[in-house]
Amino acid sequence: MAFNFSPTRWLKQTKWTLALPMAVLAVGALIALNELGYRRSIESAESMSTQQSKRGELNFLLQNMLDAETGQRGFLLTGDQTYLGSYEDALAQIAPTLDKLRELYLLDREQVGQFAELSRAVSKKLAELEVTVKLRQLGGKTDNWMQVVRTDVGRSYMDTVREKASAMIAAASVEIALSRIRIDQSLTISRVGVTLAALLGLLAFHLYLRQTQKLNAVGETQRVLLAKERDRLGELVRERTARLSELASHLQVVQEQERDHLARELHDELGALLTAAKFDLARIKSKLPADNPELTKRLSHLNESLNAGIALKRRIVEDLRPSSLSNLGLDAALEILASEFSERTGVLVKTDIEAVDLGPDAQLTVYRTVQESLNNIAKYAEAKEVVVSLHGFDHHIEVSIDDNGRGFDVDTRQNASHGLPGMRHRIEALNGTLKVSSSLGRGARVHAAFPRPKPGAAQVDGISGSVSPDAAIVRETALTPGA
């Protein structure tokens, strides 16, 4: 087998083979990128919150230090105990604030040293405030607390506190700004990721639509091809069915023509021979002496054999081509057929037959339907009673054969022999319908319906032929053994 290599086809297959892994990698990269941006945003937000807390506590510490210093200066200058209230309130807030700052800076290795310096400066400032306040409260010489104030130690401590606190506030502000920048970067990354995901989604949707359109186009093409093939096969089946139906009809015509020809030959040739033998036997009998009983017995036996041969020939001719159908009509022919069947088989046959107007084809079809049904009953049914009915209605004619035999499976029987299909084809060729119903142990019913011919319509005998050997057959029935 030759191997055809197509570079274009190979590239297409390679492209579609790599498309799925690349798409999976791209989606995984976008998910990882978004997850990284999310985590950076969370960390930056937590850092910003921490730095804001630091800055807030530092400002609060400076505010309390200023309030404490203001209260101390007011008390020193006026001696009014009212100023000590704001002083003591500020002192009460400074210790918790330092504790919170200590917790915030405990894990910050870069800023923990500055916090330590700030804490020492605060402690020194508070000690200086406490000394001056106590000296003022003791009521001693004025220059005692004034000398402490004039040393500018307190201002130096306060400047150190402000310097350290401002530096730490500035560092916290820088960290807040950096956190905001990181959050903005993370959001930008997320936006880019979402945009890329949307673009990939749109691209995938576009590819899906294109593939769907291609599949739909291929499916439509296949559907059209299948419809054409189905129509072609349907037309072929109808053509073959029509041919088979035409062939079956032709075979039936040929069969009836052969039956008619055979009946004609049997009637003309064999009938003439048997009739001549009967006449010769009568002449011989008239010339023999009457006192020879042995010879008379032989002649009587020969006469009976000739009569049996004539009866057998007549029955065969009647089976091949019923003369009663052409001479007496359908109703009488069916009565005779039922009577002979009852005599031959011993089955009780009841008839409910009325005269109907049918063409030769339809008459022969009805006769063959009843004949075939009775033959089947004799072979298989084991029936005790049969009812044959023929009725005419305004637009159609019905014939039915009912028996009380053992019944059968209709589907199995139709597939096992050609009797019922042949019967159905005969009836459907005349635009009639056949219905066979039966069940085991409950007998069977064969029912056929034919459209009634329109008045004045030409009736062509296409199956039955045109020759009827009836007159000679009727004459033969008069040649009895005593002739």
Strand content: 5-15%
Helix proportion range = over 70%
Low-confidence stretches: 457-483
CATH hierarchy, class of the largest domain? Mainly Alpha
| Biggest sheet layout | 5 strands, mixed
Q: What is the level-2 CATH architecture name of the largest domain?
A: Up-down Bundle
Mean pLDDT over the full residue set: 78
Strand order of the largest sheet: 1-2-3-5-4
Head-to-tail CA distance between termini: 90 Å
Rg, rounded, reads 63 Å
* Alpha-beta content class: alpha+beta
Structure summary, number of beta strands:
5
Q: What is the ordering of alpha helices and beta strands?
A: HHHHHHHHEHEEHHEEH
Give the number of domains. 2
State the CATH superfamily name of the largest domain. Answer: Aspartate receptor, ligand-binding domain
Number of helices: 12
Taken from the alpha-carbon principal axes, the silhouette is rod-shaped
CATH topology call of the largest domain: Four Helix Bundle (Hemerythrin (Met), subunit A)
Explain what the structure shows:
- The protein folds into two domains: 9-215, Up-down Bundle (Four Helix Bundle (Hemerythrin (Met), subunit A)), CATH 1.20.120.30; 325-466, Heat Shock Protein 90, CATH 3.30.565.
- It is 75% helix and 7% strand.
- The chain has helices spanning 7-78, 82-105, 112-138, 142-150, 153-287, 293-320, 323-327, 330-345, 360-381, 410-416, 419-429, 470-476; strands spanning 348-353, 385-392, 396-403, 433-438, 444-451.
- It has a five-stranded mixed β-sheet, with helices on one face.
- The longest helix is centred in the middle third of the chain and has 135 residues, at 153-287.
- Residues 457-483 have low confidence and may be disordered.
